[in-house]
Structures are given as C-alpha cells and as structure tokens.
Amino acid sequence: MRVAIGGILHESNTFNPAPTGLAAFCVQRDADIITSWRGTHNELGGFIEGGARFGYETIPTLVAEATPSGRVTSDAFEALTRELVDRVIAARPLDGLLLALHGAMVSEVYPDADGEVVRRFREVLGKGFPIVVTHDFHANVSEEVVRETTALVIYKTNPHLDQRERGLQAAEIASRIIRGEVKPVQSLAKPPMLLNIVHQCTTVQPMKTIMQAVRSAEENSRVLAASVAAGYQYGDVWEMGPSAVVVADDDDDLARSEAMRISDMLWGIRNQLGFDLLGAAEAVRQAKGAERTPVVLVEMGDNIGGGSAGDSTFVLGELLRQNAEGWVVVLADPKSVQECAAANIGAAITLRVGGNEDNLHGGPVEVNGRVKCLHDGQFQETEPRHGGRRYHDQGLTAVLDMGHSESGVPSLLVLTTHREAPMSLHQLLSVGIQPERQKILVVKAAIAYRAAYEAIAGHIIQVDTPGLTAVNPARFVYRNVRRPMWGLDAES
Fold this sequence. Notes:
The protein contains 13 helices and 19 strands. By secondary structure, it is an alpha/beta fold. The protein has two domains: 2-272, no CATH class; 280-470, no CATH class. Strand 5 (131-135), helix 5 (143-148) and strand 6 form a beta-alpha-beta unit. The longest helix has 17 residues, at 74-90. The protein is globular and about 70 Å long. The relative contact order is 0.13.
C-alpha cells in the first residue's frame, strides 16, 4: 500500500485585518517532512508511525503551517493548495491520502478554505479514493469537508495532547479502507450555538462529560471515529460553532443517530457556559496578594494561539502601575529586540514596548531595564504539548531584567522576534528563566498553556482583556455566521 501524507494548517482569525501571506508559512516537502515530524506528538507523527504499524509505504508530499493570524491571501492559498495537489498527483500510483487540515482556515476568497482543499482533491482523485482527514479541536467543521472526505477525525483533547493518537486513528482507518475491511459513512450535526473558548478545556466540566461520551461512542465496533469540535469563535463564517462528527462502518443510521445524540448533549450544556472574568487591574491586584505562587495570569484578549498580536500591554501596564514584583511577561516586539541586540548584554536601556501591531491591544509602554540575555530563540519540547511540535523558533530573543524583589526574584520582560504561543515551559527555560521560582507568569493564551503551566501554577487567573481574541463575543460584529445562534442572539 502506498499512502500519501500532507497538509495545510492555519487557524484564521477573520477579525484580524492583517492577511497571512506565503512568507508566513513554514513549508516542508518530501523527506524533510519525515525528518521534522517523525516521533513528534502531532498527527503527522501519527501518519508516519502508522506506516510501520499498519503496513503502508508513507509518501510525504507537502506540509505548510503558519501561526494563527488573519485570512490567508489568495496567492498563498492557491500556491500551497496547487503544489500540494500536484505533489500528490505526481506520487501516483497511490492507495490513499492522509491530510492534516486545521478546519478553521479562511482565505480571502474561500470562507471554507479547508473544504475547498478537499473538494479539489476529490475532483482529481475520484469518488471512491480514500481521503482521511484530521482536524483541530477548534475546527469550524463544514458540510463540504464531511461530504468530500472518506473519514474525518478530530482531536479529542484541549490542550491538544492526543494529536499523534488521532493521526494513528486516521492511519488505521485509511489502511482498513484500502484492505476492504470497512466502508466508512459519516454524519455531521451542528447545534446552533457558540461554545465560548473559556469553556473548551476538555479536562474540566462541562466538556469533560461530553468528551467521555464521545470516547464511549467508539466502544461500538461499528463506530470508526466519533468526534466533537468545539469550534473557533474568531472565524466569522457560516460554519462557526461546535460540531459532532461520527464515522460508522457502512451504517448511515448509526452515524446519524450518534452524531445527533452528541450534538444534543452539546446543546444541553449551554446554560453552563456563562463567564465573569476579572479585568487586568483586579487580576494583578489579586496576583500580588496570592499566597500560592507562581500565579499564572492568562491574558485571553491576546491569545497568540487564537490569532492575536502577542504584544498586548494591558497586563504589563498594570504590573508596572501596581509595582508588582517577580513577574515574567513575553511580548512579540522585533523592533525592541533589535534595540536590545544593538545595546548588547549588560547594557541599561529604555524602550517603548508592545502595542505596535494595531490599536486593539493597548499602546506602547515605556520600560527601563538591563539586557540580561540574548538568545537565538530556538528550543525543543519533547513532551506531549498543545500543537505537538518538537522544534520551536521564536527568532532572536532578548530578556530584560526589570529589577528584583526583596526576596531576590527578578521581574523579567522577554522580547521575541516572532510570535510564539506559550505551549512549552522551554520558551522560558531556554533563556535561563526558572518559571516555578517566579511570583507571576503572564501567558497570552486561553487553554493551550495548561499542559505546560498547570503543573507549576500555584493559582490561575483568567483575565478578560480587549483584543483580537477577547472572550466576550459582544466585542465583535458577526456578519456571516448562522442566525439565530445561542451565545450571540437571545434564545428563541
């Protein structure tokens, strides 16, 4: 058996006005895909491992991924999709295709960009050709993706710790299709609701019970895959919102009834989805007085993993105004990094940092510090973490020492060239910061940080800040979603 693997992965925040061009994508081809992804905790690692486990030859084609941001430009979408399709065609004869697609990609032309990718593959590969696709837990699953794929498998954890497992599940389904052992049929059900990202952690209620039900559905040998996608609320598209997808073996009624059962469970938790988070000022005040440290302040309005700028200054400004001590803040600010590099290690420096990308994340803040460290920004994460990547590169990175507390714990400002979501403690460890010794750690995230930070956190405070990933949907104007939608409209 010969099975091609590839993918295009992008989570597109349609409220972010900055387009995502081709240069924003890390593109890997052929053998480089095997080198980069073999053994990783990502579905691509699962695709590769599946070759040995299920007896197929893995044919790598193209993998492109970019940090979540605005819509993908038409040029970038066409270039990447065309090359991916061409490489798969050139690899024929093939028996199957495994595709990693995020499920929330939006291009300037295609609101359902993932659906357009699979439509093009179905067109060239034919009706019966096995196309098995994986999606992120934050996918806005479309009818076209379910219609044009043979089977869809979605991550079951948030933070995403099961990506390799899902890749292996997709690989097993593909191999069984090719051997003629199963005939997948699948069904999609979408309750008309917004499942706010505040409640999308799968290890706590109400999602914990939902995901237990999803896993229980797969105990039926006729169910090949049962999935829930919580949805991505920063994509203003018709498909926005949670989904239930069930893949059954030659049993349409089973797929449909199980998808509807899980969808009804999602609808049934809607009255548990309220939230009332602290603002930046009160969050910092409570963090200063906390007995158990470090306190993790989650700056949700600047969630890098959701497509935000990574340079919000709302929490940083409060830390400075309230004379907080022993804190760590990471900002994406390439200009300030270059100023630190020019000053060199040990130099005292005054900078205006953050608030550079737009007017949504606070203005620049003046800081005074000493350049403590310059680092190339590269680090590795070998444990299962959200996203499943092993190799990370946040570009040239500078650390400013902003002064020490009476106990000797420094306040540290980490300035990066590229946005890097806080999915790994090695982001801090690699530049000499021992996070468990700090009093306050600020993460620009929503849920993804938990796999890395929960083990060391004394206390976690979610902070309701403005920005491109603000948790309150009332801060945004939705024009393209289905209506009425619970969470955006009054329930009828």
